Amino acid sequence: MYQGTAPSRRLTSRVEASGEVWVYWQCNGRDDVLRVRDMSWGGLFLEAEKPRGPGVQAKLHFLVSDGPIRADGVVQRSVPGSGMGLKFLSVSEKDRPQLAALINRLRRLSHSSGVRKEPLQNPLLGL
After folding, report:
1. Which end of the chain is less crowded, N or C, counting CB atoms within 10 A of the terminal residue's CB?
2. 25, 46 in Cβ contact below 8 A?
3. How far apart are the first and last CA of the chain?
4. For 95, which DSSP code?
5. According to the model, what pLDDT value does residue 20 have?
6. CA dist 50 to 22, 36, 81, Å?
7. Closest listed residue to residue 56, CA positions, set 98, 27, 92
8. 63-109 tens-digit pLDDT
9. What would be the CATH architecture of the domain defined by 15-112?
10. Residue closest to 22 by CA, chosen among 38, 7, 10, 33
């Protein structure tokens, strides 16, 4: 009997944020700054002691040197004491090049640490 692992539902591969990516998060009148654990073209995982529940929408402003990146997201998964996974609902067209630069930079950092990652796929830019 075959007992392999189930295929991932993720459309794009994640890249670890290495502790250097933070977002300013706005949600239902609450503001906070949260650390990004990992991210992909489809979304990100934010570290939070008391994460919001699935279905909650938020505005995200990345605090990075790659330039302004703003996105709207929705919580897909909540893990108390750990954080929450968000799916990007939208990233403005003018911020997509900066998002690409950020993911490329993080991917290069992960390559230099010896961790093998899948090649970059960018569904946002149609590449």
Report:
1. N
2. yes
3. 39
4. G
5. 83
6. 17, 15, 6
7. 27
8. 998 889 999 999 999 999 999 999 999 999 999 999 999 999 999 88
9. Beta Barrel (2.40)
10. 33
Q: Which amino acid is at 26?
A: Q
Give CA–CA dist 97/101, Å, rounded. Answer: 6
Element (H, E) at 30: strand 30-39
Tell which residue, 94, 95, 85, 92, has the closest CA to residue 40.
85
What pLDDT, in 10s, does the model give residues 12-67? 688 999 778 999 999 988 899 999 999 999 999 999 999 999 999 999 999 998 88
Given the structure tokens 């990004």, which residue do they identify?
36
Nearest to 44 by CA among 58, 30, 32: 58
Q: Which residue has the tokens 């919001």?
A: 52
